[in-house]
Amino acid sequence: MSQPDVDTWRTQVRQWLATVLEPGRAPESASEAADLAVFHNLSDDDERLLLQRCRAYQRARFDAGYQALTLPRASGGAGLSAAHAAAFAQEESAFDVPPSTELISVTVRLVAMAVSLFGTAEQRDDYARAFLRTDLLACQLFSEPGAGSDLAALRTRARREASADEGDGRGGDEGDWVIDGQKVWTSGAQFADYGLLLARTDPDVVKQAGITAFLVPMDAAGVEIRPIRQMSGGASFNEVFLSGVRVPDRLRIGRPGQGWEVATTTLAFERTASGTGSRRKGGTFSDVLALARSLGRTGDPLIRQRLADLYVRSALRAATVDRVARASAGGGRPGPEASLTKLMASDLLTRTGQTAAEVMGARISADTGEPDTFAWTQHLLGAPGYRLAGGTDQIQRNLIGERVLGLPGEPRTDRVPFSELPGS
Asked: Which is catalytic among the residues 28, 270, 402, 420?
């Protein structure tokens, strides 16, 4: 099927956005400046209200056919090019879009995509559509206390057992899985309906080959969620403990042992979402420039040099995002190039906070009452976490070196060579 002309389609998008959103506007005063926090620091009640706003917009977007733009039609997406997705993001930026949350991003951009690509037709009908529309919310149960950067070292186990109703004359399913383990750094687990979980199902093979993915109901017996209090004050993340959690085989995503492919594809979507810049995270160059002007620091030659460096890096990142998007147009699944934009995004976020701190000097250490100064502490405290989400900066450099530049990988005996992994 031929793709619609981007410019004509862009006009249609703009007209539709005007029917569901208010036009965006610049802050009229310093007190109306944008939120500088990288991660939300909200109470549960405020988080629920924000989720309601986000879900209303996501449902309208899904119903209008503007969700999962680059996902192939056969998998439930719109089947459009990266150029169409970029045009939508540009048009959307001119409107007052509800600020997204980690849980909304994980549901729509990660879990929904994974189920769409690896799920059965029934799973796509029952879950992928509901995730894309945010009728159901989903968190990501990947990281563990001993398996962060080395995700394949996860220790959560799933063992196959007979279904409770198997052999009772009703046909049953293909048995249940019983899951035991612990996950950590799970965004929005307390509000999620399901979690996309990785578990080791075969301990006798090379570690990447013995992992299977599941959708786990977060209200299932044996699931315990404990919030993690952040140094910035909020509790965006959680620990999740699983004790004898029984999951039917129909909630397995992909084949047994295909979990590593599910994981790497999902993480590639995460890196793409993190690197695109279509959603604001913390402060930006414009915020730092406004800060420097308000404090009378733009005449300082060192500050001017730092501001110029930050501006150049911001422009380079935007150009790289556009280049990567065009290079991967029509692919459905993101390629390893997503590590480039993710690495640049985390680096720019860190440098933005550092430059703001240099502009403020001692003001960063205490609330002096001056508008939009001490608020930068939320950016500074949150930025390091962004260098971990979706794979650490070090992991991104390894991926870029091995899969983009074609450099030889480190000698390892505990993993399957990349060329031998499914879907490589």
From this structure: 270
CATH number for the segment(s) 32-133? 1.10.540
φ and ψ of 198, to 5 deg: -105, 135
Specify whether domain 138-163+174-257 bears CATH 3.30.360.10: no
Alpha helices in 124-197 (DSSP H): 129-132
Angle at which helix 301-327 crosses helix 82-92, to 10 degrees, equals: 140
Helix boundaries (H) for 361-392: 376-386
**For the segment 3-28, what is each residue's pLDDT rounded down to a tens digit?**
899 899 999 999 999 999 998 755 44
Alpha carbons 65 and 129: distance in angstroms, whole number: 12
Note whether 132 and 112 are within 8 A (CB).
yes
Q: How many CB atoms lie within 10 A of CB 358?
A: 17
Residue type, 185: W
Angle at 402 between CA 397 and CA 404, to 5 degrees: 85
The CATH architecture of the domain made up of 282-405 is Up-down Bundle (1.20)
Dump pLDDT digits (tens) for 154-168: 999 999 987 555 443
Query: Does the CA dihedral 317-318-321-326 come out positive or negative?
Result: negative
SS3 for 236-251 is CEEEEEEEEEEEEHHH
On the question of pLDDT at 345 being above 50, the answer is yes
Cα 297 to Cα 305: distance, rounded to the nearest angstrom:
12
**0.90 exceeded by pTM:** no
Please say if 161 is a catalytic residue. Answer: no
Domain ranges within the chain, ordered by starting residue: 32-133, 138-163+174-257, 282-405
